[in-house]
Write a structure and sequence with these properties.
single chain; alpha/beta; Rossmann fold; seven-stranded parallel β-sheet; two-stranded antiparallel sheet; 12 helices
Length: 276
């Protein structure tokens, strides 16, 4: 059963305009919102989904920072403009997240969207002494020995592989029609086009490589799952409630679709804060 997250979720999320600093380093996942943070307050690392960079988390991250947390939106290798995607493997994404955990001060919470769930889960198990929780937001929760590709519908898997095979760097491009249907259904065409142009090709092995050592429940890593009520158009290969069960939790409902982190940042931030 979905449980509804109240907008405030027991936290006050004030206007962060004069309390935060955001700069262009966020495109490569190295920028942070700077605030005075208590030493025992976890640092929140945001992991983006497929085709996305750290920019996709900025609306939510700004609100979480305003509530008193240090935040860093990450951009995985190959997902920043101009990155070389040739030869990138899932381990490169996992290693990038693990490196960010190691460099962060104090305990860490990982917040992952969509395909970012696999590198987040793997890094959390690998560094469970540092990661105090993983919060999945409309995210894939992996199984040991299984890839995202393995769980796709056959038609989607075939289209993904055809795109990768046709690409000189082995990356997968999301077609505009699929983007409109899955990512931002019902939005004005101009808004869809603007967001679509920010998407970059996804290294195909992030989707094809099987995950290993990703069982959060067995590793004793706490988790939470935030699920958008309208994420039913194929943004995930299986229903979000199925992924929540893999993490050993019940999903918390927020309004919006697969890109609720951008269309409903107040509610998504409140749900994340409630989980911290």
């Amino acid at each position: 059963m979905l449980t509804k997250a109240e907008n405030a979720a027991g936290h006050v999320v004030p206007d962060a305009t004069d309390k935060t600093r955001i700069d262009d380093r966020w495109t490569r996942g190295t920028g942070r919102v700077s605030m005075a943070i208590m030493a025992d307050t976890p640092h929140v690392l945001f992991v983006p989904g497929a085709w996305l960079g750290g920019w996709s988390w900025i609306p939510v991250a700004t609100r979480v920072a305003a509530a008193g947390y240090g935040v860093t939106p990450l951009t995985l290798p190959g997902l920043a403009p101009g990155d070389d995607r040739t030869g990138l493997m899932l381990e490169d994404a996992i290693g990038h997240v693990a490196d960010a955990v190691t460099k962060a001060e104090g305990p860490v919470v990982l917040v992952a969207h969509s395909g970012g769930g696999t590198p987040a889960a793997a890094a959390a198990v690998r560094l469970k002494e540092r990661v105090v929780k993983v919060v999945f937001v409309d995210a894939y929760v992996p199984l040991d020995g299984v890839s995202v590709d393995d769980e796709m519908l056959e038609a989607n898997r075939d289209a993904s592989r055809q795109s990768a095979d046709a690409s000189p760097d082995g990356s997968v491009t999301l077609p505009l029609e699929a983007f409109q249907f899955v990512m931002l259904p019902g939005a004005p065409p101009q808004a869809q086009q603007i967001l679509f142009e920010l998407f970059v090709p996804e290294p195909s092995r992030y989707l094809r490589d099987p995950a290993h050592d990703v069982d959060l429940v067995a590793a004793g890593v706490p988790a939470a799952y935030v699920l958008a009520e309208e994420d039913t158009a194929g943004g995930l290969p299986l229903p979000g409630a199925t992924f929540a069960r893999r993490a050993g939790v019940e999903p918390v409902a927020v309004p919006g679709g697969h890109m609720a982190l951008m269309t409903h940042p107040d509610e998504v931030a409140a749900a994340i804060l409630a989980a911290l």
